[in-house]
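[job 4471] stage=fold_predict status=RUNNING
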Amino acid sequence: MAKRTAKQPTRIESDLPVHPGELLAEELAACGMTQRALAEAMGRPPQVINEIARGRKAITAETALQLERALGTPAYLWMNLQAQYELARARAEWLAS
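[job 4471] inference complete, writing structure tokens
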């Protein structure tokens, strides 16, 4: 058995599913950018950005790359947020059954 020399930090995770679109909406508000302006910067229809921000559409790898280019937030962050959201939803459904 390995001896611990330093205390390992406790990792806290939430099972509350938070759609990455909610975080996208907060990011847009923080930088003063409209959904329409983001859609134009990404070359996407404004409706797509609105559906993501409202939690009705997932962030795909292509969308994550476009968000990275438009906002400077790394694509892997958006993909991780989407994966965590999907896992939290699946876990909640699994536990409810």
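[job 4471] summary: The chain has a mean pLDDT of 91.
[job 4471] exit 0
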